[in-house]
């Protein structure tokens, strides 16, 4: 039978060549190994590669085998997943690879022993260290790849410590990841998205690339075929019990996990065993205040839990939040600041109830009180971002209330961002008059349930980052930390105002966070528009506010509750549009079922016909309430004749009311605004608004 002549290459050779073509990065690791492969007398005998599943240890060993071959070495490759963990089996496998009787009778020449999945051979750890490796020829170079770092016995042995190099394998750098995706034929337009989702984790990146090449969406979701399952299998071999699984889920949700958190979340008096198990996992890192998982492992476990058991996800979320909340209330200064970072981190995968975040720097850069020597830099930062008038205003506040300013510093210690918090209730009248933003906040506070004696009104007046201004940045990260700690330290706080440029873009975040925008309080400085967002702590104190954030965020996530049951949180403009549409549809029950107000806290419904009927009652009540105020009689007549006892047209309504059409339209507009304000107040606080609205 005829055929092509063999080239002498095996399928394994072809696979190795393909892997080498697609291999990117690991320059430092390869250089470290080549230094030993090429030297007449290797400077070290053992290289220990540590990293979680899927980080690329096996791929690196494949490339090192080719590098060692190029250096003229003979290669023995052991895979802990495919060899019996017994001394004879290992000696036989190495001897067969080297084509000798026994590994210690190999004759001349460099030997490179590559050991993969060493964690499977840990029962033989003492034998490897004390008998097997010392019996190899002196010129042998050993590369061990393991999920776990060397045991204490390796590190405490002075001889091994001197002749070993330990390398912790990290995720790919962004440029390396893009190089990999280029070689994989992935459209450059999705490179950044895939790198963000995978955090540069090689296996995650390769699986996502496969999904995208197959026409799928660049995402990590339970609907992505096999992706979450494959990653989970790589990260987690087995969880010994339900309690261990719950501990893993707590670890995935919390920024950092310690025994105290596990005791609280697992409702147990002794969490030492499961905490020790968490520490032993290859994708879990031990840090100064506990343990935390690899970023991709965290995302995968989070995604799996919310899909597999939404009720359990909510239970774990609330348990972690309660523990962090208690630390916020009781911990001393530095730990309280850490707890504030932990609280915000918990919400990272839920619809946000706070401002956007630069997660790359989250928790790594901390705000600190400004010093007098920082004042020129603060004035310069504000002036560059907002103009000369704002620079003059901040200079004035630095003189009268310097203790309210915090800075975020860059690597050189210079301020890169500033936060200015003012106490309006103790401010000098001249200072208030000189600042349109502070004046707008103080006037609003005076006209809407003014503060009583001893109560405090605050304002976060300046938020400026040198590079990003008010986009996600270390300075924006610091804002909720500084303000939350401020709330906790002011027992008589009545209101807090937050001032931001381009307020329309912030409406959705702060509506959900119970900091609605103050209507009619926008102001301009040097042609730039700013808005005010306000929370009344007399109605919802800080502890209740944190509870509210929790429940709103959980309710908004469609994966945790069926969409028909999820409570919507609308921004003020969205809410106003829905009220206007509801008035237009007041006599059309079928149309009212589609109104988003039927799924807000205002109605506490689910979009059903019953919810539509409840919304109709609320709209009628709000219109009728206009007549309770003598100043609202004309407004009531206009809205009533347009929507409740509706005339055929607006022209007919004006005629019935015996009003010029322009006067009727003015009354109608003001009346609708009153109805919106009344229902908005009820949505936020469960009560109706004062006649002027907010």
Note poorly predicted spans. 1-6, 688-694
- Structural class by helix and strand composition: alpha/beta
Number of strands: 14
Largest sheet: 7 strands, mixed
Q: What is the CATH top level name of the largest domain?
A: Alpha Beta
CATH topology of the largest domain: Aminopeptidase
CATH homologous superfamily descriptor of the largest domain: Gcn5-related N-acetyltransferase (GNAT)
Assess the beta-strand content as a share of residues.
5-15%
The strand line-up of the biggest sheet is 8-9-10-11-12-14-13
Shape descriptor reads elongated
Explain what you see.
- Helix 17 crosses helix 22 (474-489) and helix 27 (609-625) packs across helix 30 (661-685).
- A hairpin with a 5-residue loop joins strand 9 and strand 10.
- With 694 residues, the chain is α/β, with parallel strands linked by helices.
- Helices cover 50% and strands 12% of the residues.
- It has five domains: 11-168, P-loop containing nucleotide triphosphate hydrolases (Rossmann fold, 3-Layer(aba) Sandwich); 174-219; 234-346, no CATH class; 368-539, Gcn5-related N-acetyltransferase (GNAT) (Aminopeptidase, 3-Layer(aba) Sandwich); 562-685, no CATH class.
- The model is unreliable at 1-6 and 688-694 (pLDDT under 50).
- The protein is elongated.
- The strands form three sheets. The protein has a seven-stranded mixed β-sheet with strand order 8-9-10-11-12-14-13, with helices on both faces. Strands 2-3-4-1-5 form a five-stranded parallel β-sheet, sandwiched between helices.
């Amino acid at each position: 039978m005829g055929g092509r002549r063999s080239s002498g290459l095996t399928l394994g050779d072809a696979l190795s060549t393909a892997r080498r073509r697609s291999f990117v990065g690991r320059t430092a690791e390869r250089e470290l190994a080549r230094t030993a492969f090429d030297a007449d007398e290797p400077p070290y005998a053992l290289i220990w590669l540590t990293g979680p599943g899927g980080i690329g240890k096996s791929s690196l060993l494949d490339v090192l085998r080719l590098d060692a071959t190029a250096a003229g070495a003979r290669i023995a490759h052991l895979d802990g997943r495919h060899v019996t963990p017994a001394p004879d089996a290992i000696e036989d496998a190495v001897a067969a690879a080297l084509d000798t009787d026994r590994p210690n009778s190999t004759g001349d020449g460099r030997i490179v022993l590559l050991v993969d999945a060493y964690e499977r051979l840990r029962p033989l750890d003492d034998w490897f260290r004390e008998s097997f490796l010392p019996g190899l020829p002196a010129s042998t170079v050993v590369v061990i790849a393991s999920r776990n770092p060397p045991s204490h016995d390796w590190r405490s042995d002075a001889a091994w410590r001197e002749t070993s190099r330990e390398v912790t394998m990290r995720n790919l750098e962004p440029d390396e990841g893009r190089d990999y995706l280029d070689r994989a034929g992935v459209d450059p337009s999705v490179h950044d998205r895939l790198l963000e989702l995978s955090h540069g984790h090689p296996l995650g990146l390769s699986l996502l690339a496969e999904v995208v090449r197959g026409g799928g969406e660049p995402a990590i979701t339970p609907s992505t075929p096999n992706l979450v399952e494959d990653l989970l299998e790589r990260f987690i071999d087995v969880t010994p019990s339900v309690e261990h699984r719950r501990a893993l889920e707590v670890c995935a949700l919390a920024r950092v996990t310690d025994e105290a958190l596990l005791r609280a979340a697992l409702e147990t008096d002794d969490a030492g065993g499961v905490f020790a198990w968490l520490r032993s996992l290859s994708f879990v890192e031990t840090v100064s205040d506990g343990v935390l998982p690899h970023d991709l492992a965290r995302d995968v476990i989070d995604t799996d839990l919310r899909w597999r058991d939404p009720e359990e996800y909510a239970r774990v979320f609330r348990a972690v939040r309660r523990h962090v909340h208690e630390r916020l209330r009781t911990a001393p200064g530095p730990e309280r600041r850490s707890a504030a970072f932990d609280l915000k981190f918990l919400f990272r995968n839920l619809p946000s109830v706070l401002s956007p975040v630069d997660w790359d720097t989250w928790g790594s850069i901390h705000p600190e009180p400004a010093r007098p020597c920082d004042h020129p830099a603060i004035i310069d930062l504000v002036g560059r971002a907002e103009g000369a008038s704002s620079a003059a205003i901040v200079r004035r506040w630095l003189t009268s209330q310097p203790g309210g300013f915090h800075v975020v510093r860059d690597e050189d210690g210079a301020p890169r961002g500033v936060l200015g918090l003012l106490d309006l209730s103790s401010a000098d009248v001249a200072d208030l008059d000189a600042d349109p933003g502070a004046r707008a906040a103080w006037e609003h506070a005076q006209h809407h349930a003014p503060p009583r004696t001893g109560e405090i009104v605050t304002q976060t007046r300046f938020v400026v980052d040198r590079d990003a201004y008010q986009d996600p940045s270390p300075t924006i990260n610091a804002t909720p930390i500084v303000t939350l700690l401020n709330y906790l330290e002011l027992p008589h706080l009545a209101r807090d105002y937050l001032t931001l440029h381009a307020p329309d873009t912030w409406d959705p975040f702060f509506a959900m966070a119970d900091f609605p925008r103050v209507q009619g309080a926008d102001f301009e400085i040097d042609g730039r528009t700013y808005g005010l967002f306000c929370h009344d702590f007399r109605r919802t104190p800080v502890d209740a506010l944190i509870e509210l954030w929790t429940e709103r965020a959980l309710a908004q996530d469609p994966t945790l509750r069926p969409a028909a049951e999820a409570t919507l949180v609308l921004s003020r403009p969205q809410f106003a549009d829905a009220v206007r549409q509801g008035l237009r549809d007041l006599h059309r029950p079928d149309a009212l079922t589609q109104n988003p107000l039927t799924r807000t806290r205002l109605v506490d419904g689910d979009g059903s016909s019953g919810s539509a009927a409840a919304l109709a009652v609320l709209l009628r009540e709000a219109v009728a309430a206009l007549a309770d105020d003598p100043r609202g009689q004309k407004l009531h007549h206009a809205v009533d004749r347009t929507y409740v006892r509706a005339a055929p047209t607006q022209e007919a309504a004006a005629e019935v009311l015996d009003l010029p059409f322009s006067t009727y339209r003015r009354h109608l507009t003001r009346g609708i605004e009153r109805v919106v304000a009344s229902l908005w107040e009820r949505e936020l606080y469960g009560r109706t608004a004062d006649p002027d609205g907010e």
